[in-house]
Write a structure and sequence with these properties.
There is one protein chain. This protein is globular. The two termini are 21 Å apart. The strands form 4 sheets. The protein has a 6-stranded antiparallel sheet. The protein has 2 domains: 122 residues, Rossmann fold; 159 residues, Tumour Suppressor Smad4 (Sandwich), CATH 2.60.200.40. Strand 6 and strand 7 form a beta hairpin. It has 301 residues and is of the alpha+beta class. It is built from 10 helices and 18 strands. InterPro entries: ATP-NAD_kinase_N, Diacylglycerol_kinase_cat_dom, NAD/diacylglycerol_kinase_sf.
């Protein structure tokens, strides 16, 4: 059982009563040797983590959704201190993939008895990500989702509505050049989704788990080119499972480069976060390991 526990939380969590209560409940389980560090997303997460490590915690807990967890993970990449996750987000794909409970007390108990395990994670242009990174319609959905959330709150129904609104605004697919293993191909696609979460893929009945198990990316290239094809693909995604070859192509690779043929910056999404960047977008598996805490009975990440 770990005694010195440092919990890093998004500063905004203190303003959200649900998240604040969840953190308080977990901290009571962690005990008197635990302390909390608040991170302001407008500041450097690396500096926050380095400051926390000066107090020699046995483990660092990232409290938040996938975006917060991704930020802390990137700062802990190559460090010896294990990272645990206290899930507070809407989807929590990474923590679910690790077998962590969404109940704060139970998750805290799992982490206190957890086993350190090294993993490699994905990077795009040096930015770490745990679940996925994408170009095209999905980053646009995330942008629309923020607008919907600000008006209606963070509900799953609101997330689904943001998908519909984005599809209705869709005009034409991207023209991209994808290079893997020295071979380049140019094509059009509405979405390129680079996955590192077997749990997320399995949740939507999408192939690619084998690539993740081999420490590689599952690169999904949408074949939909019109809004109606996107709606049809989404319907199958929700109720039947998308069809490889009809809805998407699957590439398995440890690295790839994607160049979007446009003059403007392209919206890139990674673990729910997003920003505009100029290509090419270089996807690589991390050279350094991230040490994570696996709950008892969970053999792999």
């Amino acid at each position: 059982m770990y005694q010195k526990v440092c919990l890093i939380a998004n500063k905004a969590s203190g303003q959200n009563s649900r998240d604040a209560e969840a953190i308080d409940r977990a901290m009571r389980v962690f005990g008197d040797g635990a302390w909390r560090v608040d991170w302001d997303p407008s500041t450097d997460i690396g500096a926050t983590v380095e400051g926390a490590l000066k107090d020699d915690p046995e483990i660092v807990i990232a409290a938040g959704g996938d975006g917060t967890v991704m930020a802390v993970a990137g700062a802990l990449l190559g460090k010896c201190t294990p990272m645990g996750v206290l899930p507070l987000g809407t989807f929590n794909y990474f923590s679910r993939g690790l077998g962590l409970s969404e109940e704060p007390e139970e998750a805290a108990r799992q982490l206190l008895s957890g086993t350190p395990h090294p993993i490699r994670i994905g990077t795009v242009n040096g930015q770490a990500f745990l679940n996925n990174a994408s170009l095209g319609i999905y980053p646009a959905i995330l942008r629309e989702r923020e607008t919907v959330y600000s008006r209606w709150g963070r509900f799953r129904l609101a997330a689904h509505w943001s998908v519909i609104k984005t599809f209705l605004k869709f005009r034409k697919p991207m023209k991209v050049t994808i290079t893997t293993n020295g071979d380049a191909r140019t094509q059009r696609s509405a979405l390129i989704f680079v996955a590192r979460s077997a749990y997320q893929l399995n949740s939507f009945h999408i192939e690619g788990e084998e690539a993740i198990d081999k420490d590689k990316f599952a690169v999904l290239i949408s074949r939909a080119e019109t809004r109606w094809e996107l709606f049809a693909m989404t319907f199958r995604l929700a109720f039947l499972g998308p069809l490889r070859g009809k809805d998407y192509e699957l590439l398995t690779t440890e690295s790839c480069e994607i160049d979007v043929h446009r003059k403007k910056r392209t919206l890139l999404a990674f673990d729910g976060e997003k920003r505009r960047e100029r290509g090419p977008f270089k996807f690589r598996m991390s050279d350094d390991n991230l040490t994570i805490l696996l709950p008892e009975g969970h053999a792999d990440a």
